[in-house]
Input
Amino acid sequence: MKYIIAAIKPFKLEEVREALTSIGVRGMMVTEIKGFGAQSGHTEIYRGAEYAVNFVPKLKLEIGVSDAMADQVVETLQKTARTDKIGDGKIFVLDLAAATRVRTGETGDDAL
Amino acid sequence: MQLKKILPLAAIAALLPGLALAQEAEAVADAMEAVTALNTEMVFIMNSLLFLVGGFLVFFMAAGFCMLETGLVRSKNATMQATKNVALFSLATIAYFIVGFNLMYPGDWVIEGWLGGISPTVLEPVGVELADVDDVEYASIGSDFIFQLMFCAAVASIVSGAVAERIKLWPFLVFVVILTGVIYPIQASWSWGEGFLDEMGFSDFAGSSIVHAAGGWAALAGVLVLGARYGKYGSDGKVTVMPGSNLPLATLGMFILWLGWFGFNGGSQLAMGTISDVADVSRIFANTNTAAAGGAVTALILSTILYKKPDLTMVLNGALAGLVSITAEPLTPGLGAATLIGAVGGVIVVLTIPLLDKFKIDDVVGAIPVHLFAGLWGTMAVPLTNSDANFVTQFVGMAAIGIFMFFASLVVWLILKAVMGIRVSDEDQVTGLDKTEMGMEAYPEFSNR
Output
């Protein structure tokens, strides 16, 4: 099993969710986060004083998938979250040691 | 005024030609007496009504100040800001009734034209009759007291916004009691209590200087003694932005203040018993409104030009600066002049808010630009439309009020600093006054415990 963590632009969430659901992803976790990457922030002005916005708002998606699906999920994520502009985000893939469904006690791929 | 009172009597006299001569004289005399009494009652009733309606409108400004300030502080200080606003209004009420009101409207001066005597406010007796009212040509004491009290409380509200986010609750409240019970009433007696400024011909209709700049001066003294919020200004002159927690709430506060200002300026006509007075009150409403609009639009455009994007907090301050600017003379300008007077107020706030930061004067909500700077402008703008006022007298009044309010406040702040300490520690400021001073958070669901 793989654990996929992706940071994406917030407005892309719905599009990404639809695309992932259509290829068979049955769940994900979404968190509002702030961070920086190549985009590395910008400046704003509040009451005449300039300040740096060093951390840009993004959404973090966390998805547990079977090994077989991992590549397809990453590819779908990359395609749908993409705008070709700076700040589109990152996708990380980790090995997932175990998974358990709380309601039934099922483990492994069955729990995903 | 006198002529208008006689006109209806003449009309009644004209309606009674058919009576026998002796009877006629007697009947006319009776009719005239009845109409005079009725007219006196009507004027008294309408004047009192103006004060009562104006009073509850200006009362609502306490809510306006509270929402504006609570919205412009960070969420970790919101409970403290709301607490200060409720407490300051309540304390002002008590201080004003015990000493303030009679100090501001002295029957007998201790020092002629400068200092009144101390005595509590006494209302007219229950069910008072025409013959027994305190001032039959004016209004009931209760209505006058409640109206003037609201102005006094507004002065304290102005201070609370400027010193927000780092002042301790109790020293602030002690200052409020002294400000509303003694400092403001003494200063206001010079003009509105028929003291020496009134004698000179100083003209400040509803208080650009007497209320707004006065509050601004007290706030400036407080901010200087208190120092900036922890972390606001870096050693290299860099300004750390501390954005307000709830701009819709601040916007609601601004609109409430705008509404309250109709009572503030309109009620300051002090009379509504004749056609000319009602027409003047209406003029004042229209001018007050348009000046606010002028200030808001100017701030909207100017902040967009200067900073590429419009700054809502400056637009809010701009509307309020427009209102403060027109407060010294809301009657004589036409709508065009009123708009321009307000617009200049809008320019003043947009330019002076960053200027205060340059001098490391940390005014959280912009109370000093809005109430002090626009108040000074409003005071000096009176002679532009009112030929009874002149620039020299306006300047003398403005300066006298400023010197007294600033230094009297400064002394009180310094004493409080020495005796009680007024500043919350840096660490507690970082944690937030809601947790450290109040033990109660405004938005507990949204914070990590």
In short: Chain B has one domain: 36-121+131-446. Chain B has 15 helices and two strands. Strands of chain B lie at 109-111, 115-116.
